[in-house]
Amino acid sequence: MKKIICFCLTLFVFSFMPVDAVGTSAKAAAVINGDTGEIIYAQNADERLPMASTTKIMTALLLCENAVLDEEITVTADMLRVEGSSMGLLAGDRVTYHDLLYGMMLASGNDAANVTAISLGGTVENFAVLMNKKAEELGLCNTHFVTPSGLDADGHYTTARELALLAAYALKNEDFAKAAASESAVLNYGNPPYRRSLTNHNKMLKLFEGAVGVKTGFTKRSGRCLVSAARKDGKLAVAVTLNDPDDWNDHANLLNYGLDAIKQTNYSPKISCYNIPVIGSSEEQIEVFIEPYTVNTLETKELSCEVNLPKFLYAPVSKGDILGTVEYKMGDEVIGTVQLTALRDIPALPEKISFYDEIKQNIRYILKCI
Q1: Over residues 87-91, mean pLDDT
Q2: What is the model's pTM?
């Protein structure tokens, strides 16, 4: 079994802006550490504002979490009762959830968002309930969704801070992250399906080295909205501007500012090796090693870890078996979880074992636990 690590974000590079001179033309802005959620820069970051098509971050995330990407659905006329940007869907078209995902993230298709909402939620209104439930789960208390596309509607709002947190969470989903980072895609949909090419509206993917997404947006009420993210040296910064007429330049400066602020630290637990007793084997125990963990954070003084391992194991144990986890925390927040695996095989005793050997095994275990 493979070791799994789970983590609770070149063409022309914009010039660097001095750290103490960062600022934007936006009504609201935020930059966060994509790994920990720490706020790096805030400008009216908690003001509730419309967010246009950056809404599709939530819609696309729910698609990734609840749909089978290669499943094909048939588009109905009711699904297409939405105005604005489009990936070109028509009633009767056959399209996969995969192509709907890319139609949302690249072409910002309102049709793709609406089709997704009705297909997964039954109605747009029901899907909005799912969107708000997810927002509540993520602790986004100043965010409320009415539409899956981001078209203006009363009661449809978020904040720069919470939109950044949502984007950072969504980027942990492999399918979402792949779509968000794609400059273009060749899809296959229609009636019958045929090949189409889409280009991503997010110019940051070409303008900023290390950019990995995320989403553009615009309506007359919201103005220009942009969520961007970039990786450098293992660090991830996520930037958001709402109602920003100079968003491309502002995001270059914000991302540079954020990436400069994040520091890498190798955190080593006080105990790096645990011996777990093994029952039913000629080998008494198996060793579990905890490697140093690279933390990208603004602060390190609150770092801690919690090791979760069983008191004993039954043989056989196979190399690669997941034995437990270690959770890394900053304060009370889990910032990373690493699964601990067996580094070698532990064979079981032969089926025919003497009563004496079995008693010896049990006594040995009891003595180790005293």
Answers
A1: 98
A2: 0.82
